[in-house]
Amino acid sequence: MHALEIKKDIFWVGCVDFDHRDFHGYSTSPDGTTYNAYVIKDEKNVLFDTVSPGFGKTLLCRMAKVMDPEKIDYIVCNHMELDHAGSLAEIVARTKPEKIFVSQTGLKSMAGYYPDTGWPIVPVKSGDKISIGSRTIVFQETRMLHWPDSMVSYIPEDKLLIANDIFGQNIASTVRFVDEYKNADDYDRRVKEYFYNIVLPYSKIVLTALPVVEKLDIEMIAPDHGLIHRGKKAVTDIIARYRTMAEQKPQKKALIFFDTMWHSTEHMAYAVGSGFEEAGVPIRIMSVKNNHHSAIMTELADCGAVVAGSPTHNNTILPLVAAQLTYMKGLKPLNRIGGAFGSYGWSGESAKQIHEALLSMHMEMPVEPVRCMWRPTKDDLKRCHEMGKKLAEALIAKL
Question: CB-based burial of residue 174 (10 Å sphere; 0-12 exposed, 13-18 middle, 19+ buried)?
């Protein structure tokens, strides 16, 4: 197993999981992911984070390329979620560290996952520093980015930020740095996918944290998932991307998602889309049957308008549309224009229920829901088209 030196005497010793597809049980990782861990060799040798359960031996093997694992003095747990701490017991048993550093809130997570161990756990808070010889580790709590126990570790002598879950992506690759990854479009999508499915609810906290990060002299950001950002430009670029995504300023594009039984609601979706296009607003139409809810959420990153449609089924919304709305609400998108539509045969409640669901997400709802009975007629499709035009006009006015 190869360990990569990312700075003098600082090594990536993590794991690449090419087969991982179900990230955290709610988002997809279409190309796999990485569990990044780092070792610093100094007077005190330090391991930053571990890896997901089942990958502990791989981590130990990579560490052995750098030093005997028993020579690790300290372990820093920037975050106790199991993809970063799931192999901690195995690693502690092998390395027998003098100290294990966690955030103040991390004590609760540690006690929950690893109770009554007798480990030498040391809680730290923002601004606490430890010397490891020629280097200093400065701890900064980043609560709710994306767990209460999250923190980052800054090594000023190397201008390095070990950033845990911030600034990461789900990319499984044999290259370790963003500048080595040749597919710029894929990288951009993976950044959005990670932010919009994990970090988005904490956008206000991101905007508070970024100025703190920008005050640091950083030449490299090493996250716990995906590729490492090296060089001032790469660091500036990812910080700017995070600021843009967290600000959630409306963009000139519309997302239309739907489910359908006998294609009536599908026809309505495309008619709504034609109205947007006539008004000069690009669209993305996505069936919830054919697209995972996290993929639909990723698409929302570029869309200032969100329109949802469902037939009425048992006096309510079809289950996959209801699930999408629930998932979206939990991620707290802001500053969007919304719209609702649906077909029905008997009672016709779905469009109104979707309207109310989007309204509960604080979306502006400038148009009443459009409903049609049985198959949409030409007049029904025209109403859908006009709905799309009016929503597009409202979006353009908001830009």
Answer: exposed
Pairwise CA distance, residues 312 & 54, whole Å? 45
Residue 186 one-letter amino acid: D
We find that the CATH architecture of domain 4-246 is 4-Layer Sandwich (3.60)
- The series of mean pLDDT values per 10 residues for the chain, 399 residues long, is 93 91 73 92 98 93 96 96 91 97 94 93 97 98 90 98 94 94 92 95 96 96 96 97 96 98 96 98 98 96 97 96 97 97 94 98 97 96 98 97
As annotated, the active-site residues are 24, 79, 81, 83, 146, 165, 194, 225
Phi, psi (degrees; rounded to nearest 5) at 283: -130, 160
d(CA 299, CA 293): 10
- pTM recorded for the entire structure: 0.93
CB of 81 closer than 8 Å to CB of 108 = no
Residue-by-residue DSSP string for 243-296? HHHHHT---S-EEEEE--SSSHHHHHHHHHHHHHHHTT--EEEEETTTS-HHHH
| Angstrom distances, CA of residue 210 to CA of 150, 216, 369 | 15, 10, 39
Domain boundaries, the chain: 4-246, 254-393
Q: Half-sphere exposure of residue 136, counting CA atoms within 13 Å on the CB side?
A: 9
pLDDT of the residue at 36:
96
Q: Cβ contacts of residue 342 below 8 Å, gap of 6+?
A: 265, 268, 309, 310, 311, 312, 317, 348, 350, 351, 354, 369, 370, 371
CATH class of 254-393: alpha beta
Interaxial angle between packed helices 232-247 and 203-214, expressed in degrees from 0 to 180 and rounded to the nearest 10: 150
